[in-house]
Design brief:
This protein is about 40% helix and about 20% strand. Helix 7 packs across helix 12 and helix 8 packs antiparallel against helix 9. By secondary structure, it is α/β, with parallel strands linked by helices. It is built from 12 helices and 15 strands. It is globular, with a radius of gyration of 22 Å.
Length: about 375
C-alpha cells in the first residue's frame, strides 16, 4: 500500500484518525506499530500517539503484543478491533435478496439469501428487506450496526438515494428508496447501483488495479468503474450503464426500449444455452471499454459468471486479445473473475457504510 500523507492540523483530526484506522484495517491481525503508522501517514509520533489513544478509548483499537526490537526497545503493536462495529449490506436484485453482515475489517460474519420480486411494489420489497435485516442481526450485532448499504439495479441518483427507471420495472422511477428504507429500519442507509457497490468493495480489498471495470452479468448487465483509484459515478451518478450500449442496430428489442443492446444480446444468448456466444458479446463490450478508457484490468462477476467462470473469463480474454492484436500488438489487459461470487454486490454494499470511516468513501 502506498504511503498516505496526513496533516498535523486540528481541523483534520477526523481525517487523520481515518488514515490511522485504514492502516490498522489493512494491517489485519498482525497489527502495526505506532512508528510505522507515523512513517506511513506522515504524522508526527506525538500525533499518532494521541490518535491511537482515542481509538483505544473508543474501543476501536487494542494492543496486539510487541514486535522484536531491531535496535531499541520492542515496539508495541496495535490492531483494529474488528468486532467493535458492523455494517449491513443488501443487494436488491430483480428476483433475489442477498443480505450480509460485515465487521469493521470488511469480513462477512453472517449472510442470508431469499427470493424477491422487485416488481411486487415498494411495500412488499421494503418489508422483505426489513425482515431479512432483522433475521440477520443478533442482539449484540444490532447494538454495533453503523448503517445499511443497499445495492440495487440502476439507473439511480446515488446522492439523493432515488431510483430512476430500472430496466423492466418502471414503477420504481422516482422512488426515494434511501429515505423510505431508513424510516423502516431506523438506521442510516446509503444506496448505490449494484455494480458500483461491487466495484467499491473490490477496490477497498485491493482486488482490482488502479483503473478497472467490474462487469456484472446476472438478471441484467452493468459496469462499475474505478478510474485512477476512485469510483467513477459521473456528474449525475449515471456512469456504468454498460449493458445499454447498442452494438447491433437491427438487434432484438431491449427492456430499455432500444434495439441491439449488449444486455439484450447477452441475456438472449444465456437463455438459449449459448454461453460461448454470451461471452463473445460480453468480450466485445469489454474491449470497447478498454479502448475508450485505457483501463488496467477487467473483472467479471454476477450470478451468471459465477456459475460459468472459466467460460466467461476465457471468452472475454479471447475477444480482447484479438482486438489488441488488430490494434498493433497493444498489451493484453488481464481478465479475471471477481472474488465473492454472487454475494459481491451485497459485500460491496456493506463497504459503502464502512468506507467513510476509513477515509475511503471516494475510492
Amino acid at each position: 500500500m502506498a504511503a498516505t500523507v496526513g496533516a498535523n492540523l486540528s481541523a483534520l483530526r477526523g481525517h487523520n484518525a481515518a488514515l490511522v484506522l485504514d492502516l490498522l484495517r489493512t494491517a489485519g491481525e498482525p497489527g502495526i506499530s505506532r512508528l510505522e503508522l507515523a512513517e506511513r501517514t506522515g504524522l508526527t509520533p506525538q500525533a499518532v500517539s494521541k490518535i491511537t489513544a482515542r481509538l483505544r478509548a473508543d474501543g476501536l483499537a487494542v494492543e496486539a503484543g510487541r514486535r522484536a526490537s531491531t535496535g531499541g526497545k520492542p515496539r508495541t503493536v496495535l490492531r483494529l478491533l474488528a468486532g467493535a462495529g458492523h455494517a449491513v449490506g443488501l443487494h436488491l436484485d430483480r428476483d433475489e435478496l442477498h443480505t450480509v453482515l460485515a465487521d469493521l475489517s470488511g469480513a462477512v460474519v453472517a449472510a442470508r439469501r431469499a427470493p424477491l420480486d422487485l416488481g411486487a411494489g415498494a411495500d412488499a420489497v421494503l418489508g422483505a428487506a426489513a425482515c431479512e435485516v432483522d433475521a440477520l442481526l443478533d442482539a449484540e450485532a444490532a447494538r454495533t450496526v453503523l448503517g445499511v448499504g443497499v445495492a440495487v439495479p440502476g439507473p439511480l441518483d446515488h446522492a439523493a438515494g432515488v431510483l430512476h427507471r430500472v430496466t423492466g420495472f418502471p414503477q420504481w422511477d422516482g422512488f426515494p428508496l434511501r429515505d423510505a428504507l431508513a424510516e423502516r429500519l431506523g438506521l442510516p442507509v446509503v444506496v448505490d447501483k449494484d455494480t458500483n457497490a461491487a466495484a467499491l468493495g473490490l477496490a477497498l480489498e485491493g482486488e482490482g488495479a488502479r483503473s478497472f471495470a467490474y462487469l456484472h452479468l446476472g438478471t441484467g448487465l452493468g459496469a462499475g468503474l474505478v478510474l485512477d483509484g476512485s469510483l467513477y459515478r459521473g456528474a449525475r451518478t449515471g456512469a456504468g450503464e454498460f449493458g445499454h450500449q447498442v452494438i447491433q442496430l437491427d438487434g432484438p428489442v431491449c427492456g430499455c426500449g432500444n434495439r441491439g443492446c449488449i444486455e439484450a444480446l447477452c441475456l438472449a444468448a444465456v437463455a438459449s444455452g449459448g454461453l460461448e456466444e454470451a461471452a463473445r458479446v460480453l468480450g466485445e463490450g469489454a474491449a470497447n471499454l478498454v479502448s475508450l478508457l485505457d483501463i488496467d484490468a477487467v473483472l467479471l462477476g454476477g450470478r451468471t459468471v459465477a456459475a460459468h467462470e472459466e467460460c466467461f473469463v476465457r471468452g472475454v480474454e479471447r475477444v480482447m486479445a484479438a482486438r489488441a492484436h488488430r490494434e498493433g500488438g497493444a498489451p493484453t489487459i488481464p481478465v479475471r473473475a471477481a472474488p465473492g461470487g454472487e454475494s459481491q454486490a451485497a459485500e460491496g454494499a456493506a463497504h459503502m457504510i464502512l468506507a467513510p470511516m476509513f477515509g475511503r468513501d471516494s475510492v
